[in-house]
Write a structure and sequence with these properties.
This protein is of the alpha/beta class. It has helices at residues 30-45, 65-76, 154-169, 175-182, 191-214, 231-237, 255-269, and strands at residues 4-7, 10-13, 51-60, 83-87, 90-103, 121-127, 132-138, 141-142, 148-150, 224-227, 247-250. Residues 6-106 form the Actin-like protein N-terminal domain.
Length: 270
């Protein structure tokens, strides 16, 4: 029963495969089901009861936040109360009292105000799985007109590298192997495959920097806070000649979630 969710008479194995890209997460129940598993894991981690009242904090990409906020909030906060399901053979009865939605990236800075202190302008670069989100903050206030989003996330890079390795060597490497090589971690691998991964990884970083420049942001002129799953890859493969001005790397993959939790807690206490 490990990672098995039971809901409305059906069984789901969570985390066995990567989900395909959905422009609109409300199109099906996949993310709702994953949210149940996440709630169960969080309650277990906190040694909390399986029958709880909770406030759910979640995030949306910067560029589509205003457009998607209401629909995604309704998607997570349904009339079905309490929400009853079983996860890893334990029964849960959850009352979702409220859903708080926040913009991804910006909320992570709630934990690190020192990066914005006394800086007139800072660029936020959030490198996620499917998208890269950009936004400039002026005097620590988000400038909504500068929000940009590109489908140039780490997963796209992984897919391209796997295809190139397969085409040039006939080998089928895994995403985990690629990730370890790109991050400079130990991984037994064919030398030719490793060279291809490093070559295309460096090329991917240059594509990101070019996309940022084409969007009108000058990484050589203003400080940048770089976060998300791709932050560690960019940190390792960016070159001195790229000339980034005072980049700050937030490599904690939980940074967004921690920011959501902090802000939701402050709103609840008020």
């Amino acid at each position: 029963m490990q990672n098995v969710l039971q809901y409305q008479g059906k069984y789901y194995v969570c985390g066995s495969t990567r989900q395909s890209l959905l422009k609109d997460k409300t199109m099906n129940d996949t993310y709702y089901l994953l949210t149940m598993a996440a709630i169960a894991k969080e309650l277990k981690y906190r040694k909390a009861s399986a029958k709880e009242r909770i406030v759910l904090a979640a995030g949306l990409p910067l560029a589509g936040f205003g457009r998607e906020k209401q629909r995604f909030g309704d998607y997570l906060l349904r009339k079905e109360q309490p929400l009853c399901f079983r996860y890893e053979n334990s029964a849960y009865e959850i009352y979702i009292e409220d859903v708080k939605l926040f913009p991804q990236g910006y909320c992570a800075l709630a934990l690190h105000p020192e990066y914005l202190k006394e800086e007139p302008s800072v660029l936020l670069l959030d490198i996620g799985g499917w998208t890269i989100d950009l936004m400039r903050l002026d005097n620590a206030v988000p400038n909504a007109t500068t929000c940009r989003s590109f489908e140039l996330g780490v997963i796209r890079c992984m897919d391209e590298i796997m295809e190139q390795v397969r085409r040039n060597t006939g080998l089928s490497v895994t995403e985990i192997q690629i990730e370890r090589v790109l991050n400079g971690q130990a991984c037994s691998m064919n030398p030719a495959a490793r060279d291809i991964i490093l070559q295309y990884g460096s090329g991917y970083i240059q594509r990101i920097l070019s996309a940022v420049t084409e969007a009108g942001f000058d990484l050589k002129a203003i400080p940048a806070v770089i976060m998300g799953g791709g932050a560690s890859i960019l940190k390792r493969h960016v070159r001195p000649q790229d000339g980034l001005f005072r980049p700050v790397y937030l490599e904690d993959v939980h940074a967004n979630a921690s920011g959501f939790e902090r802000l939701a807690g402050q709103m609840s206490s008020r």
